[in-house]
Amino acid sequence: MGPEGTQERKRNIKSLSLADLAELMDSWGQPAYRVRQLARWLYQRGESDFEGMTDLPLSLRQKLKDSYYVGQLRVVGEEKSADGTRKLLIELEDGEHIESVLIRDKNRLTACLSSQVGCPLGCLFCRTGRFDYRRNLESHEIVGQVLALQGVLEVGERITNLVFMGMGEPLLNLSALKESIALILSQDGLGFSPRRVTVSTAGLPAGLVEMGAWGFKTKLALSLNAADDETRSALMPIGRKYPLASVLSACRSYPLPRGCRLTIEYVMIDGVNDRDRDAEGLARLLGGMPTKINLIPLNPWPGCPFRPPSPDRIEAFQRILLDRHFTALIRKSKGSDISAACGLLSTQPLRLLDHEEKQRLTETRPR
Questions:
Q1: Does 358 have pLDDT greater than 60?
Q2: Pairing with 360, which of 60, 69, 238, 253 sits 20 to 30 Å away (CA)?
């Protein structure tokens, strides 16, 4: 919905793709460069009022105002970690909520984006999958997270990297993923390099093939978490539908940016996938593939049926991979103290924590 009282007759201008904007401007008899002007106001300058788009003719501004509004996602809660990570609770126009995360790491400031409200995959080690899956996000809601996260930063700070590693499985939302990445990469949109955008997936072969055919050449991360189908299917129900052989075949054909490797995400779980034979099996499975393996100690949550391995066990696992000439890094999860780390997003704690703030912001929503 748009601002109260207008939702029945007005549409969020950000729900239009760049191609849609071009078609609209053409139908209104406007020159093609109006698309660039309008997009830059929306996505680079953050203008929320058509009246402020001063290089557009007054007549065009009025026409836009009569038919559209400039939608903005609303940050209604925030938590800050001791390590500098920030988790934001974002309210969508229909009242649903998602979480997005800002992660600081040396010279990088990474935005972790959600692609769905909840997640239908139900991975046993992931807290997000324990809550109801509600719906796919629209493309403007994905791009809107970047704008919302940028909006809470200090003057001069800029998001440098984007990762689709928040709530949801991106490849179950291909249409919105495609439109959002197109806008993220466009010089008239957010202007990110493909090398600074990573899509993380549990591994849907057909989706990987389709995404590769788009030609965007963003980076790719595979949530693997096991070296054999039996263990993976027990942890990740989607593994019963898509065996490892088909998933890795699709990954091999994906057109990565030049010089980039496939990132393997391996959540380490005590007594489940952390044994020497698991490491040896992983080495055999990935042999010949240009990969970077991130070993991620499980982030436990209340009611989680698993626990992370000991540091010594993780290092022993890593050593087996290093001895076989793999790049294998032990990743310290950031934001774990605010449930912002891998597998912990849910919206529930923040929604309760910031109820009063959410109510106040709702009452002061611009008309």
A1: no
A2: 69
